[in-house]
Amino acid sequence: MKKPLVILFAMMSAVMLLAIACGSDEADPNATATPAPPATVPAGDRAPEPTAAPTAVPATKAPAPVGGGDSATLDINVKGDALQFSVADMFATAGSEVSVTFTNSSSVNSHNWALVENGTKDAVAADGTGAGPGNNWLPVDDSRVIGNTMVLSPGQSDTATFTAPAAGTYQFVCTFPGHNFTMFGGFIVN
Questions:
Q1: pLDDT of res. 70
Q2: End-to-end distance of the chain based on CA atoms, in angstroms?
């Protein structure tokens, strides 16, 4: 009789710790800075850190245009079973038709890919949790969401097609509950 109670207590404790850890995305003014997640682009492929505000994205990083420069086809994956995308940044040209094919090569996790307004990834993910799995963990008709795939089980692929927004920096994120804290990157539009 004691063993089931111990197991139940351990499970309840784990759930409570998870709820506390994921309970809020508001900044604590007394907290120290949290280090950024590890880079998802190999060191040799990364552009040097800018020392001043960049004026343009290097042409070598932009996707090759398809169909006369009016469209771009981009591919993204995950890093195995880690909660990380395979790339840290994606690039497109303002006004172009963009097709992002997301392949979930994880063997255990379900994921989605969503392009959102800069600085809104955590709020969109929180609102997506409220919308539930039937809405692909995304808020319904939310203007912060520019493009997205459906939630993919391990081994599945889906393509998000959208018009690239105005020049600027946006974010891509997996909104599956809890994944947004490590599964995100920059989407730079020239």
A1: 80
A2: 64
Q: Which residues pair with 100 in a beta bridge?
A: 74, 160
Domain extent listing, the chain: 63-190
Query: Quick one: 63-190 is in which CATH superfamily?
Result: Cupredoxins -  blue copper proteins (2.60.40.420)
Q: Which pLDDT score is estimated for 7?
A: 56
Provide the CB-side half-sphere exposure for 18 (13 A, CA).
Answer: 9
Region of residue 155 (phi > 0: left; psi between -120 and 50: alpha; otherwise: beta): left
Q: How many CA atoms lie within 13 A of 153 on its CB side?
A: 0
Q: If you search the block for the tokens 């998802």, which residue do you land on?
A: 40
Distance separating alpha carbons of residues 22 and 33, to the nearest angstrom: 17
| SS3 (DSSP) at 13 | helix
Beta pairing class for 114-116 and 157-163: unpaired
- Tell me which residue has tokens 């042409």: 59
Distance in angstroms (rounded) separating the CA atoms of residues 70 and 67: 6
Q: Rounded to whole angstroms, how far apart are CA atoms 79 and 60?
A: 23
Q: What are the mean pLDDT values of the chain's consecutive 10-residue runs (190 residues total)?
A: 52 44 43 42 44 37 44 96 97 97 98 98 97 96 98 98 98 98 98
